[in-house]
Amino acid sequence: MRIQSLDLGDRPLFLAPMEDVTDASFRAVCKHFGADMMYTEFVSSDGLIRDAAKSLRKLEIFPEERPVGIQLYGHLLDAMVESARIAESAGPDVIDINYGCPVRKIANRGAGAGMLQNVPLMVAMAKAIVEAVHVPVTVKTRLGWDDQSKNIVEIAERLQDVGISALTIHGRTRAQLYTGEADWTLIGCVKNNPRMHIPIIGNGDVRSPERALECFERYGVDGIMIGRATYGRPWIFKEIKHFMQTGEHMAPLTVEEKVELARMHLQKSVAYKGLPVGIFEMRRHLSNYFKGLPHFRETRIRLVTSLDVDELLSILDDIAVRYRDFESVDAAPDWDGNTPA
What we know:
Blueprint: E1 2-3, E2 6-7, E3 13-15, H1 24-32, E4 38-39, E5 43-44, H2 45-49, H3 53-57, E6 68-73, H4 77-88, E7 94-99, H5 104-107, H6 119-132, E8 137-142, H7 152-161, E9 166-170, H8 185-191, E10 200-203, H9 209-219, E11 223-226, H10 236-246, H11 255-273, H12 277-280, H13 283-289, H14 297-303, H15 309-322
Parallel strand pairs: 3-11, 4-6, 5-6, 6-7, 7-8, 8-9, 9-10, 10-11
Antiparallel strand pairs: 1-2
Helix pairs in contact: 1-11, 4-6, 9-10, 11-15
């Protein structure tokens, strides 16, 4: 699969942009486990234009994590064009436009999935951004606003016609939020539309290697984007690739391997964000990496309350010793309400 000159190989796997999750430290972990392309947390166009510190921090990209896209959201055409130019100066491999976030405070003001209620503006904004920057422009969106307006086939054609280089489709409407099952049927319709020639990336409910392989083979998508299933389980990229290459399941990570992963992630988080922020933002990951271990409540509390790096590293060492002979089983992580863009 190629996004203009960017060669991502056969059947690439993408890390979805997720607010408060896909920071540089988590992207480094996902890259370690085989993610082919990743995205920053999604960035507010208004925040960039105001030089808001949090938005500007999200633009930081490290050489070892490429290729990386910066995803922008907003509802004002001129502001989105200006923010795209600012984002381009950070050196991303692509600029991605968020037309899919269903969160009420974003969608109700016309940004994210709110754009699905104003298709002419959606298309005009994409065209203006394509003309304003020199890197490929891609889009992530949904099937439509609700069950009565699943117009993704038409939208895909119109976005392609104004020059976007790839399209990611989440298999739900905005009205569904993240409820029910993702419907890949219309994603397949877009991919198999003879008018379409840009890459189509499918997204939604890919939680297992079997499902990933099914989506590639049944719907013909060029790539798959994975969001919530990476949360507490960034090794899912390696699991999927192993299964697609061998037809067999990869052995589960041992507790010792998870401890080493947690150590690496913690150290990168602190290096990138400093103290105490680097620890605060690791807490959700530390608790989920070890979900499913028996008699873990007291240890979990210590992991999510300590503000001392050395103490946290000592706790991780204790976990490795205490559960050395425990047969690791991946358990579903707790989801705290952060949603992929």
